[in-house]
Structures are given as structure tokens and as C-alpha cells.
Amino acid sequence: MKLRSLLVTLAALCVGTAALADEGMWLYSAPPRAQIKAKYGFELTDAWLDHVRLSSVRFNSGGSASFVSGDGLVITNHHVGADSLQKMGSQEHNYLRDGFYAKTASEEIKCNDLEVNVLQSIEDVTARINAAVSVTLSGAEAALARRKIIAEVEKESRDKTGLRSDVVTLYQGGAYHLYRFKRYTDIRLVFAPEAQIAFFGGDPDNFEFPRYDLDVCFFRVYENNQPVQSTHYLKWSARGAADSELVFVSGHPGRTSRLLTTPELAYLRDNQFPDQLATLKRREVLLSSWSARSQENNRRAREDLFGIQNSRKVRDGGLAALQDPAFFGAKVAAEKALKQKLADSPNGAEALAAFERIAAAQKSIALVANRQRLLEGGGGFNADSFSLARRLLRAGDERPKPNGERLAEFAEARRESFELMLFTDKPIYADYEILSLADSLTYLAANLGADDPLVLAVLAGKSPRARAAELINTTQVRDVAFRKKLYTGGAAVVAAAHDPMIEVARLIDTEARALRKIVEAQTEIKQQAQALIGKARFGLEGANTYPDATFTLRLSYGTVKGYEENGAPVAAMTTLAGLYARSAEQDNKSPFDLPPRWVAKKSALDLNVPFNFVSTNDIIGGNSGSPIVNQKAEFVGIIFDGNIQSLSADFGYDDKQSRALSVHSAGILEALKKVYEVPALVSELTQGHR
Amino acid sequence: MKLRSLLVTLAALCVGTAALADEGMWLYSAPPRAQIKAKYGFELTDAWLDHVRLSSVRFNSGGSASFVSGDGLVITNHHVGADSLQKMGSQEHNYLRDGFYAKTASEEIKCNDLEVNVLQSIEDVTARINAAVSVTLSGAEAALARRKIIAEVEKESRDKTGLRSDVVTLYQGGAYHLYRFKRYTDIRLVFAPEAQIAFFGGDPDNFEFPRYDLDVCFFRVYENNQPVQSTHYLKWSARGAADSELVFVSGHPGRTSRLLTTPELAYLRDNQFPDQLATLKRREVLLSSWSARSQENNRRAREDLFGIQNSRKVRDGGLAALQDPAFFGAKVAAEKALKQKLADSPNGAEALAAFERIAAAQKSIALVANRQRLLEGGGGFNADSFSLARRLLRAGDERPKPNGERLAEFAEARRESFELMLFTDKPIYADYEILSLADSLTYLAANLGADDPLVLAVLAGKSPRARAAELINTTQVRDVAFRKKLYTGGAAVVAAAHDPMIEVARLIDTEARALRKIVEAQTEIKQQAQALIGKARFGLEGANTYPDATFTLRLSYGTVKGYEENGAPVAAMTTLAGLYARSAEQDNKSPFDLPPRWVAKKSALDLNVPFNFVSTNDIIGGNSGSPIVNQKAEFVGIIFDGNIQSLSADFGYDDKQSRALSVHSAGILEALKKVYEVPALVSELTQGHR
């Protein structure tokens, strides 16, 4: 937000509104009506907002989506649906790679453990939460008190409304809002293109522009075994987005860090990001190498590998921003200016002291960060079997406790979602588990040293590879019935099972919990301090601001607009013709090869139809699959990426080169009509009903 | 060597000779005549040894080779020649990827900066070296004294004989031998196959067996613009190696660490290997991603990427061995047993104390290792432009010093080789340099922290990427004439040039040199201690042993022999038929695709001809390209790899599953005749002359 306040300050100096940047991931409860009115002359009405909100869908697997028909049809990105496509696949059916189309409702395939949410209401519960957390409490006690009141508010709301109810921490603890969602768990696949065209250009072209990806996927939301009748859905625009047009993105940005203080940013820059990057790159090499040994390996690892490569580019971009003295220096300067203002203001002392507390807390976290990541973060135990084992172990210990005293993920209000995760019947492959666990145990031993007592205890006299094989081959946690038995039976039954993987989770649990407690207590201290700073900043800078992203529904606005790179203009739109040209330029070799269907149907296509485009909307990871809508609230495209210059968005907005990337609604329609020849789906999109 | 002594001890307990393992990388000056006679009944004669030695060739770029005709024709691996193939390539000619054949002598292409050596003689100079290094000297003083006497011996020999003269440290300083080599620097490419077939299966199949690689490449050695008349060359065996046959490998194993003490091994396990692996994997991801953006990127990075992926597998294998409690435990047990023997022996105290000194020295090294790797090791400045800049800077400072006081690489005896490296006219690509330097500067800042004073000074207020671009775009060191001017001019001319890259080298030089000095002094302490242990061990265990590898000529022996894996037998040989089967199994997709020529000529081939095979010979990196010869000293194959189980060979020999991998001489001939149709080359191989 330091960058933002700079921009706002600059804007305030200008006459008129032209200098206003399209910054912000705005709350639906506090939309930027004035800014949009001032810059674009467009009026955001309540009706418009309600309609777009109720048409917006959150994929809890980590993305966004929207209803595009009255019969529960939703569109998201192929890479958001990929997790489900991978899980519903088998050695015989590789839906992720080959695509899928359900000609009739009966052919639609149900996803394994997918939950999607639609936001019903937002309620400000700040006063109630703060009232329950006395300012005299220490960090750990305050954290417990806050967890307790949050769990209480959530449970009360859930009991009363039957809706999923999450208290969301905004403005770093400056505000608490209760978000109520309608949950859907019967989601079925309708259409997916081939991975080749969805992710055309693969990792090399990821985050690049110009781009040519059909990164879309259609699902249908069911309830009581019937498609939901979605009264709110986005009308499909056959014309789609036009250059220079005002467009909105309604989606779920996952996380930004724009309000962090400079010691926190320095920690990310010098500690957390380098550590995460080393892990990501280690796993990327592991999975790339293993995938290449056979086609089945490739199918099993593809989805994880994509996620890793994607995160790696994001982190590399974030690190580059933080290591850039210009970028970091602006943060330092803004913080210095704010501190000066605080020093000059009569009530600034409290906020200034808060800065000191944040710096101290960040130091305390840094001291335990490495072991915390390995043990509690799971960096040393990277396997689904381990995660399941730990969930079972902890469920036995946590569930008998009062709701408010449990670890956050065991709160009553999250029970259904937790159980959905725990009882997933997605396939878990032993060979892949061994590969991944052996790699992370190797890293554990390398990082802590092979003579570390905890390492010796975990490995039990075996090499990382041998121990991984032993644990994966003997644990029963991959059996859903076994998990149900232990979860239902509680701690005594868990202990009696003597499952080797659960026993490993138990072996490290005391230390893992202790590390988590330290980090949570320090985080609580930071949160309280940040809330004080937030309040003081609010007093100095006034209202009309947006909080950091929290994977809850936000609205951003911007224009379809190209940019300049290395002195040359980059046009805002690509066309289908560009797709064929890019493929030819790379000799049609993977990942620039086209699915046979696209080769065969080339002559049928209107190659001038727009395919992908860029806009200035402020987005971040989690926005993938977000609808991009025009002033009439029509669907004109779907967000699927940001360009490489946008990877600093975690820490600040910039509209010089930074752009959001979307698939164009006209391009999608042209492909469905001429390449995939799916008239029923085309008609549902254009008519709004099956 | 601990593993070895265990094996020897076991063998000594057995009746007969069957239990003798085929262990050892033996000195030509102390060949294992008795062992071979005992186990195989074969007599190693002086004539046989001289002939094979003088037919053996060292590629100073990092591999082995052999003369296979009387007209200077040498064969090595494609991956050993790859460095040269890459350098002689251009945007128009991708010899590395597409292969090459010179129909006539005039078409042969000269390599850029390749030096090859043929070993002429070995002289034991231990007494002279030790006499010049008083036992009363401290580590640093002893190192200086040793460097001085070594430089003196080398220079004297070089002046007298005109031969390249290197004093080689053997048995960890237990012995010093003077190796004299004939140097050749006019090496021309004769034949290379396509990278696809040379490295069929790519990284996924690297270090795996069964294998199907035509990993060969032919060069011709010239002198005075004429092919050398090699009186010693290996006769080509058209029949090649047979199952269960006794075979020898004559080549240049680079480095083994079999005599390391357990604190040194623990350092590798917990410190050095994890660090190297993180760097390798970081660079692998960087280059893979960049290569995939365009075919020209791919050509520029391919050779480095191959080297990185190869090293990554080697290090992963080495780390796995060291992290295996069985393997490491055997080392610990052997060391304990040796120490007990020393404690029981009247003269053991000195060697026991030496163990303590090694442990202490290793600790001192660990303290500075990180910064040493970044600054002196170049981990933070990974670009050819930086290496050249530092060479120029240091040449200016070192060359005026007395020969014996210079940093090792500036010793007079190495001058010609040093100048060959410095004045290379291989293409250095600015974009690739920026990519690589930006990545390593990013790592430097992440590792030391962006606020580290040295990092701030190096980056000069810019981001790593911007600073890398600035340095690479403004330095003149990629201009050979500029380098010649500065090298000739000396320190004053270097300083006057104000070259930005040289100034960066200067900026870090004081600390880099200081770190190097610490490591060299501690290494010297270790070396002296190891020499004491070596002597004591020799006293306890008797003669007939081999020193750790030193990239000098060694002889190993073994048999062509399959093994068992996961309970199933793996045959010793693959055939050409297997190549086509493996490709089909992977849908002929890269890296399992076959060059068009191989597809077209399939029917012409005798598919039963052996292609690759395994043997029990004791080898390691550097042995790539070594001839594998039979009892008649005929060329029956060429080493190109070890299997995945052999990656513990750095620390110990094992013949249960560990195998050396070779291309079979019959398979090479079949391919040259039927696929490449190069009768002149075939005739030269079979006739021994053009």
C-alpha cells in the first residue's frame, strides 16, 4: 500500500482524474464507486454489484470462476480445473492431457473432492472480535482469545444460516468481516480442451505476452443431484472485449503483501523467498526428470509440476522486485515518510512503537523459520500420506478440545471442508509418494545435518530413500475406510493402529506444534501492531482504500491496453492467426505443438478472431479463472495469467508494463464452434440455458 | 579406501582368488599385475602397458580418448567433444545437434581452445618435494614452500624436455609424481553423430541401463599442420567385447574421495553437496526454461545444461550414498578399526593426532565455505566475462611475482595452457551471459542478504538483472585483442582500462584471495595429516594399493557382466533392436526420438549387433571416452557412463550392482557403415590408416 499511497498522493496533486491508476482489489462492501465514476464516468450500481457477485464462484482448490448459464454452468481456467482433471483421470483416461466433452448430462463426471463457494453476504464484525480480545493480553493469549471468538462467531452464523461462515481478517487485523458462502460439493466436468492448447507454450511462455492459450474449462454445479438453477449468471458477449474498453475483474485474489513493513519485506527477500525458491527448483528438477522416464509418470506428476513451475516464476519475479533497490527503496522511503508523519502527529507514538514490535517479532520468527518450515510446514515430509497421517493424529488430539482452543483447521465451522479433504478418494500413487517423500527426507537430512537427533529418529537407521519406501509401503492412510475408522475412533484408536506414518507424525509433533505456536504468537503480535499502524494510517490518509488480498471476492477495474517492451509496442490483443504463427516459429515442437484437431480445423477458423488480451486490472494468483466483464456485466473474457512484469504485484501495483492476461470470449466461442464442434455447449452459452 | 581395505581383508580370508573384487584405478607406474594374474591368469607386460598408455589421450576439457589409427584419429565420447562442437557451432551450423562428417581432410574443423595430452613418463619426486617442505613449517608456510618446489620441478622438467610437466599429488600427499605429457592443441573434428542418438534418452535415461547411446565422436590430432603419425594406436575389434570377457579401461578418472576421513565425508554430506545441489538445480531450472523459449537459446545453452544435469545426478547419487547409514556406517567402522590398530601400534600416535588435525581443519573450512564458494569459487559471478576479467586482473598482479609464490594457475609450467584458455575465441553470447550473471548475482544477494556491504558494492544501486546487463554490455573482455593488450601490458594497463567487469573482480579480490588462502592453508594441514595417515596405513596394510583419482592416466580391469535389479536380471549387452524398441515405447517423442537417418536405415541394419554394454571396471567422471580394451589391447568399446548404482564410486567401489557403461565397438562400426555410410572412416578404423 506504500506504492498506492504514493500514487494517491500524486493523484491528489493533479488536476482532473486522468492520472488515477487502475489500482486496487476492492471489497464488494466498499467498492471504488467514486474513482470509477471520476475516471470513466461509469456508475457502479448495487444491482450491478449484486449480480456480478452472485455470478462469481470461488474454487476452493485455489481459483476463481463464474456462472455462465442459468443451468449451473461455470467457466474457469483449465489450470484451475486441472487438479480435478488429474484426480478423475486414470491410466486409461488422461483427461488432463486429452481433454473431455460430455455430450449429455449423464456423461458429466463428478469431481473427487472439489468445493466451490458463492458469496452471499458480508458483515462487519470488527467491534465484536476486538471486544473479546483485551488489549492487556500477551501475543499468545490474544491469539487464543481471537481464535476463540472467531470460532464462536463462525459457528453461530453457520448454525443460524446453514451457510459456510468465515471470519476474514482485513487490513492486517484493522477489520474483521464475516463472509457467508453457499457451498457446493457436487461439481461435474462438462468440457475441457487438450492441455496442449490450454497451456500452449508451456512453462517457456508462461507469464509471457503475446500469448495464445485456450486456458478454459467448463463444469456444472449440482445440488440434490440436479443442476443448480443459477438466477445470476453472466451473459456471454460474442463480441468480447475491445481495445481501450473499461473492464472489471470479479474474483478471488489469494494474497498480497502491500502493507508489509520493510523488515518484513527484507525477511521475505533474504530468507523466505530464497528458501522457497530452492525448494521449488529442487522439486521442479525432481519431477521433470521423473516425468520424462515414462508417459504414465508424466501424467501422474504433470499437475504438481505445473504448479511448481508457475510458483517458481512468481517467486522469482517477487524476489526480483524486492531485490530491486528502486522498488525496495520506494518502500523504505514511503515508510520513512509515514513514520515522520506519525512523529509529527499527537497520537503517533503508539503506531511508531508498533513498528518496533513488528521488527522484533519478525526477528523471532526468523530464528525458528527453518525448522518450522521443515517440520510444521511439511517441507521435510512432502507426501499426501504424511499430510493425511498428521491430520488423523491431530484430529484425535484436537477434536475433544473446546472449539475455540483447537488449531484453526479443526474449528467446528471448517469441519465439513476438513472432512472433504480428509476423506478424498483421489488416487494417491505409491511410487510418486516414495519419490516425493524420499526427496524431502533427503532435504531434511541435508538441511539439519544427518546427525541431528530428530533426523536420526525419523530415518530410523535407514537411508532417506529406503525409509520413504518403507513408510509409504506400510502405512494404511491411503485407505479411506482406515481413515474413517481412525477419525471416528479418536486418539485411542489412532494410537492403537500403530501406523508407521502416523507414528512419524507423532514423533515430530511436539516440536512441530511448539514451532507453530511461536510463529503464531509472533504473527499475532505483528497483527496487533499492524492493526495499530493501519488505524493510524487511516487517520492520516483517510478512507477509500482496499485491504491486502485474502482469497475472498474482490472487484478490480481497468482498461484493455497494450504496453511497451524494449522500446517496441506490444498490442493488447492476439488473434488465432498468431497461435499458428508461434507454433510454426518453434517447428511445432512441444510445448508449442498443436493438438491434431487444431491442425485439421485451421481452415475452418476465422483467424482474425481475438484470442488472448491484456488489461490494466489489478490481479494476483487466485484470480485465475475470474470473469472479466464489461459495463453491461457481460462476460467478455477470462483471466488466466499476468505478464512477467506483473510479478511484483504482491508488493505493489504498477500500470506501466504490468498487465493482466485473459482469454477472449470471442476466441473461446470460435474454438467451441469450429474446432470442437460442440453445438449444445455453444447454444447454452449464447442462449443462457440448455 | 576404507571400503577397499574391508574387501581386501575379506579377500585375504578366502582361499583362492575368486572373491577378489575388480577394484581400483591403478597407476601405470604400479599396475595390479599380481591381482590380474591371480584372478584372470593374464600377464600385464611392460610392452602391453606402454602401448596402451601411449594410445591413451587426455582431453583437457574434461575427458578421455584414444588413438584408433596411425594417422592421429582419436575417438572420444560425443559428450566429451560436445564442448568443442558447441563452440565451433553458430546460428547457421548446429554441429552439436545435427552432427558432422568431414569427407576429406580439408573439411575437418579446428577446435577453438582444446588441448589434449599423451602421457610420456612418470617420475617419483616425493623425496625432493618433501625435502623442500620442512616439517616445522605452519600450514600456510608449508603450502607456499610446496607450491614453490612443485613449480620449480615442473619448470625444470619443462625447460629440459619441452613436455608439459605436472607434479601430481597422490595418496593425499603420501607421494608426488612428475607426469610428463606431450601437448597437442591443433585438434580437428572428423565425425560426430546427431545429439539425439549420442544422448538418446537424454536426462531421463542418463545413468540408467539398459541404454542405447551412440556416444562417440572422432577427432584428428594435428601437429605442424599435419596429422600426427601415431605409432601407438588401438586396433579396432570388429567383434568387440564379449560377455564375461576380461577388459581394461585406460583413462583419466577425475577425482575420487575414497581416503577421506569421516569428518570430511560428513562435511560433504551436510554442507558441500547440499550447497552444490541447490546451485545445480537452480541453474538447471534457469537454463531449461530459457532454452525452451527458442531454438537458438536451446543451442546456446544445451552443452552447459547437459553438464549441469549430469553433475546433478552424480551429486544426488553421492549424497544418497553418504546419507545411507549402511554406507556411511561402514566408513565409520573402518576408520574406527584403523584408529584401534594405530592405538595398538608403537608408532600410531602421530597418525592418530593427524585425525584430530583433519577434523579441526575441516571445521575451519566449514566456517568460511559459503563466502569462499560465492567469491573465490565464482558462485556469485557465473559468467565467462567475469572469469576472463578475473584472470586478467590476477595475471597483472601474479606474473611479476617469483614463479613459486604465484597462485597455482599462474605457475610458469601452466602458462601455455592458461593462455590458451585466456585467449579462446569461442563465441560468448551477451544474452546468455546476462542471464547467467543475473541469476548468480540474485543468488549472491539472497544468500548474503541484500544489505550485505559487499552485495551493495557489487550491485552499485541496481537490481541484479540491471547490474548484470550493465556489466555484460559495457565490459570489453569478450574482445580477444583487448585481453591480449591487458595481459601483455600488465597491472598498470589493466587498471588504466577501467573495465567495469574487471573493476568488479577487483572489488571482491581482497576478500576472495583471503578466503582462498584460509582454505588452502587448512587444506595443506589436512594434506600433511593425510600423508601421515597414509604412511601409517601403508605400514599396517602393506603395498599394492592405488591412490584416489587425480585426472591422470589410470588402468582399471573388470569383466563384461550383467547384474540384478529389483530381483530381475539385467543382461550385460543391449542391441540395436533394443534402441528401436525403447523409442517406440516412448512414442518416439523427445528425448526418445530417433534421427531421420536412423529411421530410414533401420532395415539395412543387423539389429542383433550389440550396442551398449556394462562391465565391472572401476571408473568415475573423467573416464568418459576411455577406451575399453581386451587382452590383445584391441579397442572393444568406449566408456560413456556408469549406472545409477555406481554413483557412490566417489567414496567406494562395489561390484554388486555398480557398473561401467560402454558403447560397443561392433555397434559403432555397424552404425558408421549402414547408417552414416562413411566408408573412408570405416576403412581407416579397420585398416588402421587412411
List the helices and strands and how they pair.
The structure is a homodimer.
Chain A lengths: L1 H12 L12 E2 L5 H8 L5 H10 E4 L3 E5 L5 E4 L1 H11 L6 H4 L1 E2 L7 E2 L5 E9 L1 H7 L6 H23 L2 E7 L4 E10 L1 E7 L2 H4 L3 H4 L11 E7 L2 E2 L7 E2 L9 E6 L10 H30 L3 H29 L1 H20 L4 H27 L8 H15 L16 H8 L7 H19 L4 H7 L4 H11 L5 H10 L1 H7 L2 H42 L12 E6 L3 E3 L2 E3 L2 E3 H10 L10 H5 L9 E6 L11 E3 L4 E9 L17 E5 H11 L3 H9 L3
Parallel strand pairs in A: 13-21
Antiparallel strand pairs in A: 1-15, 2-3, 2-7, 3-4, 4-11, 5-10, 6-10, 7-9, 8-9, 10-11, 11-12, 14-15, 14-20, 16-17, 18-19, 19-22, 20-21, 21-22
Helix pairs in contact in A: 1-12, 4-11, 6-7, 7-21, 10-11, 10-13, 13-21, 14-19, 14-20, 14-21, 16-18, 19-20
Give a written overview of the molecule.
The structure is a homodimer of 690-residue chains. Chain A has 690 residues and is α+β, with helices and mostly antiparallel strands. Chain A is 50% helix and 16% strand. Among the domains of chain A are: 319 residues, Thrombin, subunit H (Beta Barrel), CATH 2.40.10.120; 63 residues; 65 residues. Chain A contains 25 helices and 22 strands. In chain A, the strands form 3 sheets. In chain A, strands 2, 3, 4, 5, 6, 7, 8, 9, 10, 11 and 12 form an 11-stranded antiparallel sheet that branches. In chain A, strands 1, 13, 14, 15, 18, 19, 20, 21 and 22 form a 9-stranded mixed sheet that branches. A two-stranded antiparallel ribbon of chain A has the order 16-17. In chain A, a hairpin with a 4-residue loop joins strand 20 and strand 21. The first copy, chain A, is globular and about 65 Å long. The N terminus of chain A is likely disordered.
